[in-house]
Amino acid sequence: MIKIVSDSTCDLSPELVERYQIEVIPLHVLLGTEEYLDGRNITPDEIYAWADKNKTTPKTSAVSMEDASTAFAEILENYDGIVAFSISAGMSTTNNVLRLAAEEIGASDKVRVIDSMNLSTGVGHLVVEAAILAAKGASLDEIEKAVLDYRPRVRASFVIDTLVYLHRGGRCSGMAALAGGMLKLHPKIVVKDGAMLVDKKYRGKLPAVTLNYAKDMEEQLLRAKPDRVFITHSGTDPAIVESVRSYLESLHHFDEIIETHAGSVVCSHCGPGTLGVLFID
Description:
Blueprint: E1 2-7, H1 14-19, E2 22-25, E3 28-31, E4 34-37, H2 44-54, E5 59-61, H3 65-75, E6 81-86, H4 94-104, E7 111-115, H5 121-135, H6 140-150, E8 154-155, E9 157-159, H7 164-169, H8 175-178, E10 185-192, E11 195-203, H9 206-215, H10 218-222, E12 229-233, H11 238-250, E13 257-261, H12 264-270, E14 275-280
Parallel strand pairs: 1-2, 1-6, 6-7, 12-13
Antiparallel strand pairs: 3-4, 3-5, 8-14, 9-10, 10-11, 12-14
Pfam families: DegV
Protein name: DegV family protein
GO molecular function: lipid binding
């Protein structure tokens, strides 16, 4: 049997992690001199409070070599191999840490490390697909080939309520051009080739903007892989989330519409009020 592992930026809920028997290794969040583990001992609301008080974006860092090598070694006591996913290598050194951890324990032949070239449930889609294959008894080669085929088809995008966090962190190409209109624009951020880019720019109140953002993708949504679509947000008004869910339900296309809350690392850079609809084209 093959075990599926992901770093914590996959933003899969505890229920999904349990359902698909996924092992999650946390990234680190630094609030000043205090260090926390994503999804373990820090919440997005605590991060927002700290960031607003200190007028800066928290720092985040890759999974630790110790955590990764320990997890790999323990898993390989009971499994034949591991497929491990990381947030885009262009956004974090986590991918390299996972590779080095496999080398450190002499298991490079048993551990396939996949650069998702994505973030949040853009990673999560690949992780779930891998877990489904692993449960069916697929081999390392079969799982790796399948997820690499899916990888360029993952569509990850978000509409942002406040540009403050992305601007502070310098994480998104095109932020300088938007800085002058920070309080007026709600940009659509897309992940392309492993990087975050500013796409369409919306104006107006967030409820209308968020629904329009989802509707603008209707053509793609109707040809998407129908198994699941994620609504992933960073603490968005439940009424806004429900309006997007209702719209997706009205398409009568997806077998499952899954709501997840973004983890601490993603929330650190996107801020509150962010919402994305993520699917496989």
